[in-house]
Amino acid sequence: MATQAVNQLLLTACVAELGTLRFTPAGLPALDLKLEHESTVIEAGKPRQVKAALKAVAFGAVAERLARQAMGSLWRFQGFLATPGTAKHPVLHVQDFQQD
């Protein structure tokens, strides 16, 4: 029995940088942003302080909604990871977000 691959990320993070709403050549709204996360997790039975920053992108209605949010605001983001073109690091493609 084959299993289906899953690429889904759920992350609580604040908006650290917010680009200007732009449009793709096809006319789709697009927004680049940077997210920052900070929490304590349990790893190998011990608490660990975790900080992470990652680039993200949103398209369509999600991009338009995100463009209206305040810098530093905290949200729960849902999406998937993809490494664009020749880049070395994955980017979170935000499919939805809601108040945390």
UniProtKB/TrEMBL annotation:
Q: Which Gene3D superfamilies match?
A: Nucleic acid-binding proteins
Tell me which Pfam families the record gives. SSB_1
Q: Which UniProt keywords apply?
A: DNA replication, DNA-binding, Primosome
Q: Which SUPFAM superfamilies match?
A: Nucleic acid-binding proteins
- Taxonomically, which superkingdom? Bacteria
Keyword DNA-binding among record annotations: yes
- PROSITE patterns named in the record: SSB (PS50935)
The record describes its quaternary structure and partners as: Homodimer. Interacts with PriA and DnaT. Component of the replication restart primosome. Primosome assembly occurs via a 'hand-off' mechanism. PriA binds to replication forks, subsequently PriB then DnaT bind; DnaT then displaces ssDNA to generate the helicase loading substrate.
Known function: Involved in the restart of stalled replication forks, which reloads the replicative helicase on sites other than the origin of replication; the PriA-PriB pathway is the major replication restart pathway. During primosome assembly it facilitates complex formation between PriA and DnaT on DNA; stabilizes PriA on DNA. Stimulates the DNA unwinding activity of PriA helicase.
Entry's NCBIfam families? PriB_gamma
- What protein does this entry describe? Replication restart protein PriB
Which species expresses this protein natively?
A: Variovorax ginsengisoli
Gene of origin? priB
